[in-house]
Amino acid sequence: MRHLLIGILTSSLLLINTLAGMLPMLLLALLKFVIPVRAVRDRLFEAVRWIASTWATINVWIFRYLTPTYWDIRGQQQLSRDKSILVISNHQTWVDIPALIAAIHGKAPFFTFFLKRDLIYVPFLGLAWWALEYPFMRRYTKEQLAKNPRLRGKDLEITRKACDRLQGRAVSLVNYLEGTRFTPAKQERQNSPYRYLLKPKSGGVAFTLKAMGKQLDSLLDVTLVYPGDKPPTFWELLSGQVGRVIIDLEQQPLPARMCEGDYQEDREFRKEFHAWIGDIWAHKDAKIAQLKQELEASQSDS
User: Fold this and answer.
1) Cα 182 to the chain's mean position, in Å?
2) Edge-to-edge strands of the sheet including 111-113?
3) What are phi and psi for residue 124, nearest 5 degrees?
4) Mean pLDDT of the 80-108 span
5) What is the dihedral of CA 178, 181, 186, 190, to 10 degrees?
6) Which CATH class is domain 70-301?
């Protein structure tokens, strides 16, 4: 009963906060859509981002004061609100998003997510993401590309246009390299070489670096680790059933070479880029194993 009451209260406050910010965000976004003056459009976009930032701040407070979850954030002191960063993270559950917000919101520039196209239909949030000009990516299967070769490169073209709109703004670009949430079944289907991760997808990141590499100051590698064998559901977070979550932030420079090569046309560069991402992913996999051992040890001690 206690968890049910916490879940109802937390969900209600999150919904109220979302609805309160939704109407002014959409009104400003529609004005930005119809007004042709660039300076006015930029001001309206900043107003939309300010509303979204306030929404995120209130959500952080809601989770902090209504749920017992302890966000064990490491490496936060490296962050700066004035420098643009590329954020990569492992992805297991919807809880990943509030965890990431808890870790970087207010410490780094406002975040921009690369989203799967079908997420635009999520109630309320889909419209908010549209207002914030988040890029909605559509991934095509090999069969679809074989039937319609004109679709090749469409997702990367969307990335380029989104990056063009972000030029000159401090931003945290968030990209989940696995492209989907981790499950043991997906791991088995992929024959993934990693213990806790799916194979990373490099194309979107390569194109982002090509388009915005000069503006990005560094790479922020985020590693999320949850207690137990299964990641918590969003309801378990809302209802106060998640204890400790480790959020490890590791900032590293972006190699100039990775920001300059032609991923699509240069086969040797593509191999080099895959190797660079592979090294990052192998390091992350080992870190997850280490942090899981730490969590298990702390639970057995308590």
Assistant:
1) 14
2) 70-74, 244-252, 216-225, 84-89, 172-175, 111-113
3) 70, -60
4) 93
5) 0
6) alpha beta
Sign of CA dihedral 61, 64, 66, 69: positive
Residue pair 232/95 in contact by the 8 Å Cβ criterion: yes
Tell me the pLDDT tens digit for each residue of 278-296: 999 999 999 999 999 988 8
CB count in 10 Å sphere of residue 84: 21
From residue 97, alpha-carbon distances to 92, 93, 166, 202 in Å are 10, 8, 21, 21
Which helix (H) or strand (E) segment is 112 a member of? strand 111-113
What pTM value is reported for the model? 0.86
List, in order, residues 6 or more apart from 202 with CB less than 8 Å away.
Answer: 177, 263, 270, 273, 274, 277
Q: Identify whether the C-beta of residue 197 lies closer than 8 Å to the C-beta of residue 90.
A: yes
Using CA of residue 10, residue 14, residue 15, residue 17, what is the dihedral sign? positive
User: Which one has a higher pLDDT value, 210 or 271?
Assistant: 271
